[in-house]
Amino acid sequence: MMSEKIEKPAPAVKRSGAKAAAKPSRGRPARRRPKIPYSAGEIEEIFRRLCVQRPEPQSELEYTNPFTLLVAVVLSAQATDVGVNKATRKLFAAADHPAAMAALGEDAIREHIKTIGLYRNKAKNVLALSEALLARHGGAVPADRAALEALPGVGRKTANVVLNVAFGEETLAVDTHIFRLGNRLHLAPGKTPDEVEENLLKVIPQPYRRHAHHWLILHGRYVCKARRPECEACVIADLCRAEVKTSDVPAELRPLPPGPPLPRETA
Ligand code: SF4
Fold first, then answer.
1. CA-closest residue to ligand 1 atom 1
2. CA–CA separation, 203 vs 3, rounded Å?
3. Which of 46, 215, 222, 224 to mutate to test the pocket of ligand 1 (most atoms within 8 A of CB)?
4. Ligand 1 centre distance from Cα of residue 40 (Å)
5. Domain that holds residue 48
6. Mean pLDDT score of the chain, rounded to an integer?
């Protein structure tokens, strides 16, 4: 595989306009920019490198259409993608659209997903959201946040994943990995996932917003791990401002597989 030279980041820019930007404008509340220790050029460089690694990153959840994606994401709450995939292979072979899922019924859905945590409640939600899709949307998954969040078992995070992966929107679903990275790297500090999401969307340069969600999840899952970040394997080690980092030398920048680097469960 080709490797790429890592360019020197642009020098830090003065943020003299930050105060002015925080001033309330007529009719709109003041919106503060997060205090982050990176220049615009450094943030651009962070995402450029993640983009070189995986130009077209993919979800690790297996799905065949927007409906199976939605169900897989609902099932993935407090479960690993690997565990969800094991259960959904047979479930989706039996039902890959709302009418078939509704016909399958709660008992059969529960039987298919019983290896996943919270499976009883999730089986109820999968049935209820299938019925709701049939009743309200003609069996189609809506490309609309409010309509998605009105479905049983669907919250902001699930809606963000579906809008991003199925419909190409520039949304960012903050899971445990993205929440950790946003705070650890001081890239988008926040006390809640919503705060981190809002702050990340403020700082991520536009060309990178579409795939930032997957880049950050994969980086957090396989490199910047919760307990022991593997800084020597990190392509942004020279730019990173995390207190826990153990190396300033960036790893070689080269393209990686679009999904997980190894066939193992490490979440
Ligand atoms: S240098 Fe270490 S702490 Fe910083 S992003 Fe890379 S793995 Fe995480």
1. 237
2. 27
3. 224
4. 19
5. 34-59+170-267
6. 88
